[in-house]
Amino acid sequence: MIRRRTFLGMTGALATAFVVSSCATAGSSAPAEGSSEPIVIGVSGPLTGNQAEYAKNWQDGFEVALEEINGAGGVDGRPIEIDFQDSQGEASQATTIAQRFVSDPNVLAVMGDFSSATSMVASPLYQRGGLLQLGITNSHPDFTKAGDFIFSPSVTQEVEGRYIENSAHAVGDKIAAFYLNTDWGNTAFDVFQDQADENGDEIVYSTPVEEISTDFKPQLIQARDAGADVAVFFTYYATTALLVQQAQQVGFADVPFLAVGSNYSDQFLDLAQDAGEGVYVDTYFYPGSEEPQVEAFVTAFEDTHGTAPNMFNAFAYEGLKQLAWAAENAETLDRAGIRDALRDGEDIPSVIYGEASYNDERRIDGPRFLWLHVQDGAFVEAPAFD
Questions:
Q1: Residues of the chain with pLDDT > 90: what percent?
Q2: Are 168 and 232 in contact (CB under 8 A)?
Q3: Count of alpha carbons within 13 Å of 351, Cβ hemisphere only?
Q4: Among 116, 145, 283, 380, which is 20 to 30 Å from 312 by CA?
């Protein structure tokens, strides 16, 4: 049975409201201007299933954002409330959730789903319903092309894939690439391969992999025997952890491993164990940064959860803070007003990018990267590859 969870903090009024897998009655009227009723933000994400750890990361980030927003009085006296629906990471569930959110006028914006493939199936529904979809972790280059209500602060595979290949180029020119056999994975590899061609690098071995697979030794042996001097993983943390463990078992652990940012998770460290040592992971957020907005977020997160935040905590925190900022700055507090505020906003406060604004493709202008390196079972900042 899925539970309803409500986090309460008292700062004069309701400080946080976080509803998991419940939905307001569709067809009810939205609160009138001047109301003290909550502003409802929908979330579609994998609370259960293979990607559930990412949704847990989101929940932890949302909780800190809710404490800050509602603890400061909400938006014009109205608290923010999250309605988190479990998609299980499945496209069919995401479309059902989208239909529910679109038909509920109390929901003024939506975040999610986690994967681009799952999110993009639901995007046309949000676009037709005039309901802003903020894909906080959606990097597929085509994600925002569904229409002018579809936004993402996540860097596209077009940008990230080229960045990773340029970094691999600095390490070696014979590359092995492993990528999820999904639209996201195939798109990432296509971009990566195009950049490798531009750089004159040779991809000596490449293969799609299934997220549910448990034996990658045959592929890893082929990559080893092909003479790869660097390996790149466009895979999620559970798959990457198995890949690096089995690479060690087949004698393919003496080359640099570069992994996409979705592996920046404590779960990768826990699953990979010693085999994770030395793996590089790219990211846009690092809790060890000395930037004031990062230090403030890290302190608040550690006070609430007792541990430092990761990139997925940060994207969740940032997504909710952006939507609250848009609600605060909207000319009219409705779906179109929130969309317009986010579209036209300048210098939007950002814990990831410092300050942010969205371009004509409804992506962040001027994103930045850095590399992390696993040392002694922890992620530490690493120099950029020259």
A1: 81
A2: yes
A3: 30
A4: 145
Cα torsion for 217, 222, 224, 230, to the nearest 10°?
-100
CA neighbours closer than 13 Å in the CB half-sphere of residue 206? 18
pLDDT digits (tens, 9 = 90+) for 80-132: 999 999 999 999 999 999 999 999 999 999 999 999 999 999 999 999 999 99
Same domain, 182 and 306: no
- Report helix, strand or coil for 145: helix
Element (H, E) at 47: none
Which residues have CB under 8 Å from 84's CB, separation 6+?
Answer: 18, 19, 20, 21, 43, 45, 47, 55, 59, 62
The pLDDT tens digits of the residues spanning 223-265 come to 999 999 999 999 999 999 999 999 999 999 999 999 999 899 8
Note whether 218 and 335 are same-domain residues. Answer: no
Distances (CA, A) of 127 to 177, 277, 323: 35, 43, 17
Statement to judge: residues 267 and 299 lie in one domain: no
CATH number reported for the structural domain that contains residue 167 in this entry:
3.40.50.2300
Question: Which positions ≥6 away from 55 have C-beta within 8 Å?
Answer: 45, 46, 47, 84, 86, 114
Could you tell me if 176 and 267 lie in one domain? Answer: yes
Please state, rounded to an integer, the average pLDDT across all residues of the chain. 90
What residues make up the domain containing 251? 157-283+370-382
pTM: 0.78
Q: Which helix (H) or strand (E) holds 291?
A: none
